Amino acid sequence: GAVVSQHPSRVICKSGTSVKIECRSLDFQATTMFWYRQFPKQSLMLMATSNEGSKATYEQGVEKDKFLINHASLTLSTLTVTSAHPEDSSFYICSAREPLAGYYEQYFGPGTRLTVT
Amino acid sequence: QQQVKQSPQSLIVQKGGISIINCAYENTAFDYFPWYQQFPGKGPALLIAIRPDVSEKKEGRFTISFNKSAKQFSLHIMDSQPGDSATYFCAASMFTTDSWGKLQFGAGTQVVVTP
């Protein structure tokens, strides 16, 4: 089956620094990837949609200058949280759409736990 | 505005019992309805999904029932096992060149299966 990985699985950073999270599709080419954040006991909130080679489309209320998304290849998308603050602490999850599986099916990564101190 | 409403928020069921989770949607353009299972600290995993041209789909102990006219769909977990204890999310999607099939998630249901 289609596998999506994320790196790192956990990261702790100091307030004001930047942190990069990688999302990779391991055995398929993902033309579209999605980034979510999830707070404890809450649902997944879509942050942005990225298509390979194009600028990401951000959901309303998500600061594009703070959450930089790069989808430079068909197997890699990155999310960079710039000038992180404690309120950015969350569980960040990516998903990837595999075109051969049809229009809809998305495969999720294992998530990255970000803690900003 | 939440486009997919999910209930109940939590559910306790005995081992061997049936867990039922309900979802309702408003946008009739949605045409893909998946259910995801999530364990603590993990990403969601696709459990089962349905398209609106069928009223029911079964995979093992998991069944989706779909009522297009009522704009509702539900997940039934038969013979619930302790290993089914997790949070379940329903979702809905439509594919357009603007949305790229992005998912609208329900709020989630925490299911606890007692031994």
Topology:
The complex is a heterodimer of chains A (117) and B (115).
Chain A: E1 4-7, E2 10-13, E3 19-25, E4 32-38, E5 44-51, E6 57-58, E7 67-73, E8 76-81, E9 90-97, E10 106-108, E11 112-116
Parallel strand pairs in A: 2-11
Antiparallel strand pairs in A: 1-3, 3-8, 4-5, 4-9, 5-6, 7-8, 9-10, 9-11
Chain B: E1 4-7, E2 10-14, E3 19-25, E4 33-38, E5 45-50, E6 56-59, E7 62-67, E8 72-77, E9 86-93, E10 103-105, E11 109-114
Parallel strand pairs in B: 2-11
Antiparallel strand pairs in B: 1-3, 3-8, 4-5, 4-9, 6-7, 7-8, 9-10, 9-11
Summarize the structure.
Chain A has 117 residues and is mainly β.
What attributes characterize this protein structure?
heterodimer; A: 117 residues; mainly beta; seven-stranded mixed sheet; four-stranded antiparallel sheet; 11 strands; B: 115 residues; six-stranded mixed sheet; five-stranded antiparallel sheet; 0% helix
Characterization of the model:
The complex is a heterodimer of chains A (117) and B (115). The radius of gyration of chain A is 13 Å and the shape is globular. Chain A contains no helices and eleven strands. In chain A, strands 2, 4, 5, 6, 9, 10 and 11 form a seven-stranded mixed sheet that branches. In chain A, strands 1-3-8-7 form a four-stranded antiparallel sheet, with no helix packed on it. The termini of chain A are far apart. With 117 residues, chain A is mainly β. Chain B is mainly beta. Chain B has strands at residues 4-7, 10-14, 19-25, 33-38, 45-50, 56-59, 62-67, 72-77, 86-93, 103-105, 109-114. In chain B, the strands form two sheets. In chain B, strands 2, 4, 5, 9, 10 and 11 form a six-stranded mixed sheet that branches. A five-stranded antiparallel sheet of chain B has the order 1-3-8-7-6, with no helix packed on it. The N and C termini of chain B lie far apart (38 Å). The model of chain B has no long low-confidence stretch (mean pLDDT 94).
Instruction: Count interface residues per chain for the largest interface.
Output: A-B, 25 and 23 residues
**What characterizes the major β-sheet of chain A?**
7 strands, mixed
> Nearest-angstrom radius of gyration of chain A?
13 Å
The low-confidence parts of chain A are none
Shape of chain A: globular
From the helix content, strand content and strand pairing of chain A, which structural class follows? Answer: mainly beta
**Secondary structure tally: strands of chain A:** 11
Strand residues, percent of chain B: over 45%
Q: Evaluate the radius of gyration of chain B.
A: 14 Å
How far is the first residue's CA from the last residue's CA of chain B?
38 Å
User: So what's the oligomer here?
Assistant: heterodimer
Number of strands of chain B: 11
Number of helices of chain B: 0
Mean pLDDT of chain B: 94
Which series of helices and strands of chain A comes N to C? EEEEEEEEEEE
Strand content of chain A: over 45%
Largest sheet of chain B: 6 strands, mixed
Distance from N terminus to C terminus of chain A (CA atoms, Å) equals 37 Å
Q: What is the chain-wise order of helices and strands of chain B?
A: EEEEEEEEEEE
